[in-house]
Amino acid sequence: MNILLADDSRTNLALTTAALTKLGHQVIAVSSGEKAVIAFVQQRPDLIILDVMMEGMNGFECAKELRRIDTENWIPIIFLSASVDDNSISKGIDAGGDDYLTKPYSEITLAAKIKAMQRISDMRQKLFETTQKLYLQSSIDSLTNVYNRFQFDRTIKEVASSADRLHYTVALLFVDLDNFKNVNDSFGHHVGDLLLMNVAKRLKLCVRANDFIARIGGDEFAIIVNEVKDREMVGQIAKNIIDSVSMSYDLENHNVRVGASIGIAYYPESGTTQLNIVQNADIAMYHAKSLGRNNYQYYSSELYDRYQRKISLEHALKFALERKELSLVYQPIFDLQSKKIIGIETLLNWEHPTFGIVSPNIFIPIAEDTGLMASLGNWIFSTACRQAEKWDLNKIKNFKFAINISSRQLLHEEFLPFIISILEATHLSTDMLVLELTESTVMSYTSGPFVTTIKKLHELGPSIAIDDFGTGYSSLTRLKHLPIDTLKIDQTFVQDVSNNPDSAIIVCCLIALGKNLGLNVVAEGIETEKQYEFLLKNNCPQGQGYFLSKPLTTDQMTQFLKKMKEKV
Q1: Phi/psi at 486 (5° precision)
Q2: Other Cβ atoms closer than 10 A to 561
Q3: Do residues 339 and 536 make contact, with C-beta atoms less than 8 angstroms apart?
Q4: Which of 348, 253, 360, 342 is nearest to 521 (CA)?
Q5: Best exposed site among 12, 29, 354, 473 by fewest CB in 10 Å?
Q6: Rounded distance, CA 222 to CA 172, Å?
Q7: CB 336 within 8 Å of CB 536
Q8: Distance between CA 400 and CA 346 in Å, rounded?
Q9: CB contact set of 8 (below 8 Å; sequence gap of 6+)
Q10: pLDDT tens across 370-395, in order?
Q11: Are 23 and 114 in contact (CB under 8 A)?
Q12: Residue 486 contacts residue 521 (beta carbons within 8 Å)
């Protein structure tokens, strides 16, 4: 062992040094308590032997100072004393000592005391190593091998404190995987776990060695970029993450693709507390998702105001049904050649006493995120079918009645029995019913219960339409294997055909694509005569939009259908 020995008696110092050396130990011999403190700081011994009665700083005072200097590593201390009474023992223990050696002592007693201290030291070292191991295990996410939420909370607090003290900037990036739930639903949680492990590996390659990465939720990661001097560098890190995460993964013979939405907040600029900076990075991340996902956004005060409104809308939407703020409106679908109505699309309308008319583009994503969409969707379906029964739509030849269906509904095991029960109760012809799914929804699920449910629904008789077609990432191979009957061209292309040659080409291609696949084609969002004439000229069979008819209330649609039946 490396032993620090302090005794102001030169004779005793020499004798004890000789005895320790004979026992095979290395000795750092000093003649005062003050010198012992200096030697302790410089050489960090394995054991300390202090004479109690030294001039200047005595043994007890020296022990207290050594314990003050090093509060974490408990190095054993033995006191040397000519006499040991109860009072001395109490003082020694209070000072931080572990044992006493009474002068004069034999070499056998000295060796025994040191062996005892060696055992204590070894046990403490093992305890320390075990504690460190347990601490590490409690700090690491066992699946991805990056830090966990517990360690993230500790680190962000420490980093914020350091940034305040040293006046530098810290960047916090919140990374959320896009469409991760679809991977779990389509391929199972085992593949989802493999994906998370691979994402974590890619994240490590996108950041600096001293940056901090933690998995803070199911598919959420946090990255702390310390001491930011170049903010463009933070943006480049975010871009690299998006590019890397978005590359395909080969997992268990499945080709998997996800994206990444990233929110960035700076400390202390974007928040003066740990809670602020975390909340604001989260707000920026959700803004990135609202902009179409797979991008990164910086936090701003405007985003906070938008977030507050979103929270208010979330709360209000939970009670919208029972407060009778929700209603259905119906937009006619026309044969473009004859301008005759050939169907209706059911749409959800929300009129709030404070917020007024809330756009579906705003509240439908909120309903999806909060888990309300399944119950809302079921209410829409049952209410619409009962209204269709009242209108007696079965008697209108070749008439179509379209209802939008969410992915949350399709993934619920009770959805198919629910559909069957409503159709049986309302006696609606299944051939008349059209179930509309967004393109992104259909293409996010390539197998599993989602596709199985679509096929079973189609077997019942309803036709399946892809809504907002052209805005997603459709694979023609996937389309070929799904029971799709109708493509609905997204309104963003239709509304731009008059002044954007690219949009005009896209619409023509989509019309041709649908026809070549033997599918019906409906153009959405027709608002001007020019748009209508373009679609007519390019042989688009059906369409809907304000130029032909705005969405109608139940009473307005009742009168509309009455006049249509009278003409027939």
Answers
A1: -140, 140
A2: 20
A3: no
A4: 342
A5: 354
A6: 7
A7: yes
A8: 11
A9: 31, 32, 51, 54, 55
A10: 888 889 999 999 999 999 999 999 98
A11: yes
A12: yes
Tokens (6 digits) for 435: 């179930």
Q: Which helix (H) or strand (E) holds 449?
A: helix 449-460
The backbone torsions φ and ψ at residue 431, rounded to the nearest 5 degrees and listed phi first, read -65, -25
Euclidean distance between CA atoms 191 and 561, whole angstroms: 51
- Pairing type for strands 254-256 and 249-251 reads antiparallel
Helix/strand/coil percent split, the chain, to 5 = 50, 20, 30
Quickly count: other Cβ atoms within 10 Å of residue 353's Cβ.
8
Q: Which residue has the tokens 């009645």?
A: 401
Angle 433-534-493 (CA atoms, 0-180°, nearest 5)? 65
Query: What is the per-residue burial (b if ≥16 Cβ within 10 Å, else e) of 170-188?
Result: bbbbbbbbbbbebbbbbbe
The beta-strand segments (E) located in 209-268 are 212-215, 220-228, 249-251, 254-256, 259-267
Closest CA to 373 of 417, 416, 404, 413: 404
Give 397-437 pLDDT, tens digit per residue: 899 999 999 888 887 888 899 999 999 999 999 999 999 98
Reference 538, options 525, 523, 528, 524; nearest CA is 523
Residue 361: count of CB within 10 angstroms of its CB: 8
